[in-house]
């Protein structure tokens, strides 16, 4: 199956479908006679009795953040590798697997609804993610198998035992899941790469901390290895995922700039693959702002960062225990905007946090108006059970809703992309728009660009001209599809693409391209003009990319003119040659006619005499 890495067990090959791993004592299979819902479990036993392990169909549903999405992709990869089929159709599934999110009440309510629906359908159920990890004793989870956030590498065991009618709960672990597990990506061009789990904070409203726990970082070497693997698999975007990217490495003696520079060094030199840095809170990047800005300026890193502020009031930030001030948030934003050309920043706001006064809210509105950030995620405060904020005096719900609507109206009045019309931008295309008629690409600043084109353009990079702008995205017209500098050819010979994007015509060993009048060296130099990884001054990247593209277009136009002139000359010679050839035939025909006429005259003369 596509996009599934090889499963390594003890350094060997994969495990065949139907192979059942032994259930370790930590699995904790609970005897059915001790459960209150024996009727439900008995029905599951009869439902699965005739099924062979590893052949059933699994329905998966994921709620929440990109970290959850990555976990689901890893679980799907393992299940597929063991022979299970995946489906989006609930009715045809033999088992449902729900990966949950505990950030907001609506997500958990949606989970509750889905669990009830699964019970009504009498289907076996496994619940994974932050909800069971952080609230294992929920009534809704009674009689349901559970996979903890750090137990995703054992999902096959849980599914097999659940299909037999057992309830399995895997929640406790002291080590991180491996990064080289089999994986089925939702988007084969996008790798969501978790760099750590948990965080160092203790926000009073956050339930995720209860589930993901304290900071646990993957080693730099393990992340480098994963990047190498996914690049070889054809991935074009790598999203670094974390509960707090800025805190990376503080538990293992490294820091975020060390990791980022190590990962950037592994990206293709032609800019065909991009890195997107994940969400980071202000406290842990303040001391690394210049180093992070340098990474964000790199041609293969999106100039985009998600920095949640949550409130424009220091009083509320203190009540939230966010460990920074509004001034420090301003420092982060101002520094990155100053040092990174085209920098785009997203943020989050919580409306109606306990104790928020009209004055506090007004400070938040003024902050958002001041920066007019292109992306602001606005949510109402939801008390999460077991958190300190849940015990605080709440703002009336009607006031919370009013503030949320007011801030949303302010935000939606911004026009962040006005002025982009007519600009030439390089984009990386990785997805299909929800309308089904556009492809989705992103600029260096991670601005969404919608273009029309065939699905074969997915996974490519292109130069586009922005034709119109909307509130949430812009529209573009593809001018040129960019190709990679070096493409692996037959017999290990590296080939360099020619100006004709439909051909790959020359190797490094030859001096002249078969498809044009330029040499391979010149072609390589042209491509290097477009994307360079050499050190450059801040602010030069976008201009040099554009200048390189214009020079390449100018040179291509000159080449096309020369080719056209040569073709015209050859056609003229061919027409002249054809005319000469045609006249020669006429002359021969005339001579033969004259000769035959003379013979006829002579014959007639002889007859008459």
Automatic annotation (TrEMBL):
Keyword list, A-Z: 4Fe-4S, Iron, Iron-sulfur, Membrane, Metal-binding, S-adenosyl-L-methionine, Transferase, Transmembrane, Transmembrane helix, tRNA processing
Enzyme class: transferase
SUPFAM superfamilies in the record: Radical SAM enzymes
TM spans (from-to): 589-608
Cofactor(s) needed for function: [4Fe-4S] cluster
GO molecular function: 4 iron, 4 sulfur cluster binding; metal ion binding; tRNA (N(6)-L-threonylcarbamoyladenosine(37)-C(2))-methylthiotransferase activity
Domain Radical SAM core: 185-417
Record SMART domains: Elp3 (SM00729)
GO cellular component: endoplasmic reticulum
Domain called TRAM: residue spans: 418-480
Reactions catalysed: N(6)-L-threonylcarbamoyladenosine(37) in tRNA + (sulfur carrier)-SH + AH2 + 2 S-adenosyl-L-methionine = 2-methylsulfanyl-N(6)-L-threonylcarbamoyladenosine(37) in tRNA + (sulfur carrier)-H + 5'-deoxyadenosine + L-methionine + A + S-adenosyl-L-homocysteine + 2 H(+)
Annotated Pfam families: Radical_SAM, TRAM, UPF0004
Residue span, MTTase N-terminal domain: 56-164
This enzyme's EC code(s): 2.8.4.5
Function: Catalyzes the methylthiolation of N6-threonylcarbamoyladenosine (t(6)A), leading to the formation of 2-methylthio-N6-threonylcarbamoyladenosine (ms(2)t(6)A) at position 37 in tRNAs that read codons beginning with adenine.
PANTHER family on file: RADICAL SAM PROTEINS, THREONYLCARBAMOYLADENOSINE TRNA METHYLTHIOTRANSFERASE
NCBIfam families linked to this entry: MiaB-like-B (TIGR01578), MiaB/RimO family radical SAM methylthiotransferase (TIGR00089)
Recorded family membership: Belongs to the methylthiotransferase family. CDKAL1 subfamily.
Protein name: Threonylcarbamoyladenosine tRNA methylthiotransferase
Organism from which the protein derives: Sesamum alatum
